Records
---
Amino acid sequence: MITYDYKVIGLIATNCYLIKNEDTKQSVLIDPAEAPQRLQEMIDKSGCELKAVLLTHGHSDHISAAKEVCEKNHVRLYAGEDEKELLQNPQLNLSSQLGAAISIEADCWVKDNDQLNIAGMDIKAIHTPGHTAGGMCYYIEEAGLLFSGDTLFAESVGKTDFPTGSMSELVRSVKEKLMILPDDTRVLPGHGEDTSIGYEKKYNPYCQ
């Protein structure tokens, strides 16, 4: 059985998700924001061994604790292959504006439609450019869960006025890659409340 926990962390209230495979007692962490100690507490409390960290995109409010969490748990960092420059450049990933220059390198660069088998879970990587060029959503079909980062929010979508952003690409990503998922898919975004694909089809103006 696949379940998840999450913590809302940082000034921008980032949702940091711990996906747990209760059968294998292993887990995957998505978007480790600030406060690595709080994230480690969630990992330790879960009783599941962390096997990987996945990034939906490279903005500082989603990556600040990535290096520390990976080193602490001896796991690899996964990110979209088109996010290399943004992850490495503190000005592009906005960390320099927040007073802490962050430059990181993923261990595994992920392509669109890659099927990741981690912690006994099949996780599909869906490249959704728009918020950033290398944005990735992660879909677990077995559990009906979509981790949408800052691509899709409840009744909205992510901002596109940051480096490498594009509103036309974002709307295309949402319509062509996310709205084709089953209506009962639970959408777990990088900020704010969860929603569903079916609900967004009806009430999200960017999905019409």
---
Amino acid sequence: MRDRLSLTDVQRLLSEPTEEARAAIAVKVAAQFNNVLLPPKERELAQEILGYLVHDIATHVRATLSRCLSDAADAPREVILALANDIDEVAQPVLESSTVLTDEDMVALVVGGSAAKQRAIAGRPNIGPSVCEAVARTGDRSAVIVLVANEGIVVRPDILEKIVNRYPADADVYDPMARRADLPGALVERIVTTVSKSLRDQLVERHGVDKATAAVLEDIAREHSLVAMMGDTDPEGMFQLVAQLADQRKLTPSLLLRALCAVEMRFFETALAYLTALPHDRAERLVHDVGALGFRAIYARAGLPEALFLAFRAALDAAHELDAKDALGNKVLVRRVMLQRVSAQYRKIEAKDIDLLLDRMTRSARTLPWRTGRAA
């Protein structure tokens, strides 16, 4: 067996007390714990040497030991804990990947550790809810950002809500959180609203934009962001998002039209089901009715503005055509087709892209009577 430990190694530790020699022994002894066939006597010898090296005066030796033991599943627990509680440079490798550490260990390390240690733990691919909650509740802001950017783990909705409550209007926290697939619909709207208000304040305070115009731009920004973020929301979360938007009078015709033009069909169907108090499957059938009456009927029951019906009809027809061509993945094509179809119904409005067209169309719709409650 290559590189087996022997008494010679022990003698070398005693006779050549240089940092380089101790680091070399650390590499060799750490490697033994990845060898499942290591005889008991040699494993015991290796463990004794580890117990000696983990308290080495040289940081380089302890850091070398930490790197070499970070992926050793059979490494002695007391050694791993000693390394994890060492200075940041030494602790980082085992904090990032050692499977010897339990969730209880990591919670204690988050609560009592430095920001660097918290970041190392928050970025692990295998942390549980208790560790996530510890980071969310007591972790340094930089560790929280690492946690919400860690897409390899599941973060419970209540933990994400704690983070939003702890860091209101913090774009550095919200940006990676917005890209999470497990972000609840209710938090999607809350984050987008907060960011939009921040945009409005900047326009008013820094750029001299009047408050009325800034409010319109805030609404547009919020709707843009909502549509961009709603794609990964699950059915239950989608219904909660729709209900929350309706309660806050933000389930507007312009938002529904933007979603339809982005082919966010689940949101559009759920919104019409909510507004008409129809079961989702029935609303879906009416929305996609190939005849002339189904969509017209549910559109009228939802109370959507008549002035925008042709835009909704054109966007829905284009979505059906694009779906039949399996072209929904081509965003450039989708936006071009939507612009052509919708603008054909509103020739007095000039716009070079679909966003500008929708902005100009829906600003006038904001002055129309509009309700957001369920149909009677």
